[in-house]
Each structure stands twice: as C-alpha cells, then as structure tokens.
Write a structure and sequence with these properties.
The chain has 6 helices and 15 strands. By secondary structure, the chain is of the alpha/beta class. Strands 1, 2, 3, 4, 5, 6 and 15 form a 7-stranded mixed β-sheet that branches. Strand 1, helix 1 and strand 2 form a beta-alpha-beta unit.
C-alpha cells in the first residue's frame, strides 16, 4: 500500500509492494480526431494494437477521441456506455490486444443527460471503471476564448480509481487538473499514477498544461500522464497537443509535440518511495488543523 497522511511511521520503513520494482509500461496516444466517428474509433483501435506491439501494458487515449470537441457536437456524437459502438470497439480492442485501455473520453448519453466520460477496460475487455468529468470547462478569457460545457453537459459526482498490474491509478479529465483536491484524495487512496485525458486549447495550453501536470505530480508525489488530441489548426476548437508524462519529482520525462504520435514509457514505481521518503510531506501534514476529505 502507498503511504497516506494517516500513517504513523516514516515511509522509508514501510515494506514496499513487489510492483514498485517492476514498473508499468504505458502508451499515451495523441490521436488526430475528425468528424467521422467510425474513422476516429478505427484509428484509436489501430493505435491500441500498435502500442501493444511496443510492449505497452496500459494504453490511454485523449479527451473526446471519437468526436470533435465542442458543445455543438456532444449531442450528435453521444452514445450509451457500455452499449455504444465506441465502448464495444474499445472492449474488443482491449481483449484482442491483451492490454488495459483507458478510453480517453466520449460524450456519454444517460437518459436525457450528457456527460464527458472516461471508460477503462481490462485485458479481458471488461469495463472496470467509468469516470464522468467532475469540473466542467466554463471559462471566459476576454478576446481569447469563451467556452461553457455546462450548456450541454452535466458534471459527474464520483472520484474514480482502478488497478492495473497491481498499480492503483486515478482518473481526471482536462479541467479537473486544476483542482488539486481530487488529486490529493486519489493519492491518499494509494494511487501512484494519475491519468488526465485533456484538450487544453491554444490559450490555456502553453500557459498551464505542463505547469499543472508538474504541480499535481509534485504536490501529490506521484506520476501524472496528460493525454491530448493532436492539433488540428482547422478545427473549431484547436487543441494544444503536447501529451506529457511527469515523474513524482515533478520532472517532465517525456513529451510529444502537436502532431499525432504515441508516447511509450515505463513508469518506475520505485521512484514513489524515493520521493516520499526523501521529502515525507505525507506524514508531516497537520491534519489536526486542516484536511481534504471526501464528502460522499
């Protein structure tokens, strides 16, 4: 188990799980996304199999990988989870490739509500986790960008984690990256890696994409993976790209540019103990004075 703020002993003396010395090979797919849903999904499936050929044990896709990103598209591209065509394709790809698939996000239809939803499929193609974006992207930067997901989407209300090869992993989506509270709760629940499918834009991307990823990795002392769509300069919403992996020291260990590509890297779990024992903030927090707690 990872050390939490309530542990009474220094993390250096905690017995480490076996997976700490094994690592987890992950692939972060920066996918080009167009208006043809079937082509988007087919390309995602192709990238999943290619990542497996490179030795990946977990493959993560970007936010809105099966549809253009934009409030005017969500209703048209929405489908039920896990009955929709995208879910069926991800389930089949995960089972055929024998990898865990973090299915970026899709517009999910549930009754009369729409959500921005991330699904996770195990090596047998079973749905093991579903996370609905909790913090909706409602911003107004004068003369730059105005965007309001809440005009169409509803927010999720559940923090979501899952396990892959013994590694506990937490999920967030794009704007969630700005809220350290949910990252802190997932870290306290034992996560060693947080994955954020996200589509930062050409205003917020260069300012905050890497900055926030490094901040979450540093303040929670864990790995952070940011998975963006590739940039399409002709799209209504232009994504920043630059899919990035950050280690528990807050260092960027791998990063893509704006074009379609796949980042493959082995996440070294032994680094978690190194950081947490060297700077043991997890046992130094004054939870008698302040704390971050789950309310539901």
């Amino acid at each position: 188990m990872a050390v939490t703020a309530t542990d009474a002993i220094h993390p250096r003396f905690v017995k480490k799980p076996l997976f700490y010395s094994m690592g987890l090979k992950i692939a972060l797919v920066q996918l080009s996304v167009g208006k043809d849903k079937s082509k988007n999904v087919a390309q995602a499936v192709k990238k999943i199999h290619q990542a497996k050929e490179k030795g990946a044990q977990l493959v993560a896709l970007p936010e809105c990988f099966n549809s253009p990103y934009g409030t005017k598209y969500f209703n048209e591209y929405a489908e039920e989870v896990p009955l929709g065509e995208t879910s069926r394709a991800l389930s089949q790809a995960a089972a055929e490739a024998g990898v865990c698939v973090v299915g970026g996000t899709v517009p999910e239809r549930c009754g009369d509500k729409l959500y921005n939803t991330c699904t996770v499929w195990d090596i047998n193609g079973k749905l093991v986790a579903k996370y609905r974006k909790m913090h909706l992207f409602d911003i107004d930067i004068p003369n730059k960008i105005t965007f309001k997901e809440s005009e169409v989407l509803k927010p999720g209300n559940e923090i979501t984690t899952f396990e892959c090869n013994g590694v506990k992993i937490g999920l967030g989506i794009c704007y969630d990256l700005r809220f350290q509270e949910i990252a802190h709760l997932m870290a306290n629940e034992g996560c060693g890696l947080l994955i954020y499918p996200g589509a930062f834009n050409m205003t917020t991307g260069p300012k905050h994409w890497e900055l926030l990823g490094r901040a979450r990795a540093t303040d929670q002392q864990l790995w952070v993976a940011l998975v963006s769509p590739a940039r399409d300069a002709n799209a209504d919403y232009v994504a920043w790209g630059h899919t990035t992996l950050v280690d528990p020291w807050g260092a960027v260990v791998a990063k893509l540019d704006e074009k379609e590509d796949t980042l493959v890297h082995t996440v070294d779990l032994s680094m978690l103990e190194d950081v947490r024992s060297s700077i043991p903030i997890r046992v130094q927090r004054r939870t008698d004075i302040y704390d971050t707690v789950r309310k539901s």
